[in-house]
Amino acid sequence: MRMLPYWLDTAPPFTGAEPGPAEGGVDVAVIGGGFTGLSAALHLARKGASVALLEAGRVMGAASGRNGGHVNNGTAHDFAGLAASLGLDHARRLYHAFDDAVDTVERLAREEQIACDFRRCGKIKLAAKPAHYEKMARGFDLLHREADAETELVPRERLGAEIGSERFFGGLVFRRSAQMHVGRFGTGLAEAARRQGARIFENTPVLSLKRQAGGHAVATARGTLRARQVLLATGASRLGPFYFRRRLVPLGSFVIVTEPLGAARLAALMPTGRNGTTTRIIGNYFRTTPDGRLVWGGRARFALPSRASDARSGRVLERGLHETFPQLGRVGIDYCWGGIIDATQDRLPRAGEQDGLFYATGYSGHGVQMSVHMGGVMAAVMDGRPEANPFRGLAWKPVPGHFGPPWFMPLAGLYYRLQDRIS
Ligand SMILES: Cc1cc2nc3c(=O)[nH]c(=O)nc-3n(C[C@H](O)[C@H](O)[C@H](O)COP(=O)(O)OP(=O)(O)OC[C@H]3O[C@@H](n4cnc5c(N)ncnc54)[C@H](O)[C@@H]3O)c2cc1C
């Protein structure tokens, strides 16, 4: 078993990184080489800005290369809950921002000719308990009428056409959702940004940011850049103002990938080939790959990733996989890895300007599509169009008692386990 992401192991690496020092002056310094940063660099360079992207490790080395490969529409919250807390119009706007985000990924893959197996496969959200399906069914009319006519409720008696598992009590299909090979997409995005003139520095951690006349001094391990504007595209990292540390919670999530299972076996497990997610808080997300594997992810344990933690989480995930599909028997697990999710308390992203720095973050595990989209949005915002930002004006309160490291994670894990048992 390889303790690294399948996506990075099966994609061509990006080979266009700058060899020299990171010095001189630029219009924009983009910090972070995940999807937010790469997409922003591409969109800014397309507008004619001089751009330096500064990445601490390799591009896509963090969440963007370590996720489940779902490009889903729909918000993390159920639509009825979102409408109850924000009002119908606001909820609809946010919901449609996720539709736009899936469209953005599809458009960029087409425009930049990125061969990443993008496919509108749809997603099915599977009810892990009868009460979860009842809640889905109660909220369905509002969702279908007000936000997404391409959704469909699937009762338990018809679920066999969607999934070869007896564990679920019904489901909700979102037809606009998609999937792709995130490794190939990321390399393609980096190459596209470079073609447009953005300079991409790998192994170049930003050490400090200082405001100065006409912009910022961006000190890196390979020199200091002067930048008129700075975009923080740093995911769950701790760079930037303390403001973010009080509002973003880093959460671990883990993934295993099986050996190739063959088309017939996969079709018996997931006949429609959609992305699957489950309704438990400590639930699972899964999909198939074009080379016949099953990608199976989940929070598994409330722990941050490390080699040992990933291996332990991988064993938890493997048990869940066999409980869901007992007919599979024992299958080989070829890949196992973990990554960090940048979560907000309400699981909605945040973007804007803070202390003179632009930022887009807090995708809360629903960020493959949204990070790509927000890269383009932030290029517009930095060009003087703040109204382009779908998350503009969302209140963002600090998490009580949170000042950096998530000390409360084991307690939260116990609480969520209990919720999963009683809900
Ligand atoms: C295990 C897992 C599964 C997931 N599954 C899905 C899924 O199936 N679908 C979905 O929609 N979303 C999923 N997500 C979430 C999604 O991957 C992220 O929301 C998205 O990739 C965030 O992109 P980003 O560019 O904002 O952040 P990242 O990809 O985390 O990039 C941030 C970059 O900033 C760099 N950086 C940080 N600090 C510095 C510094 N000081 N100097 C220079 N560089 C710095 C980091 O090295 C990193 O490369 C998952 C996430 C994880 C971890």
UniProtKB/TrEMBL annotation:
Protein origin, superkingdom: Bacteria
Keywords annotated in UniProt: Oxidoreductase
GO MF annotation, one: oxidoreductase activity
Keyword S-adenosyl-L-methionine among record annotations: no
Gene3D superfamilies assigned: D-Amino Acid Oxidase, subunit A, domain 2, FAD/NAD(P)-binding domain
Location of the FAD dependent oxidoreductase domain: 27-380
GO cellular component annotations of the record: cytoplasm
One Pfam entry name: DAO
InterPro entries: FAD-dep_OxRdtase (IPR006076), FAD/NAD-bd_sf (IPR036188)
Protein name: FAD-dependent oxidoreductase
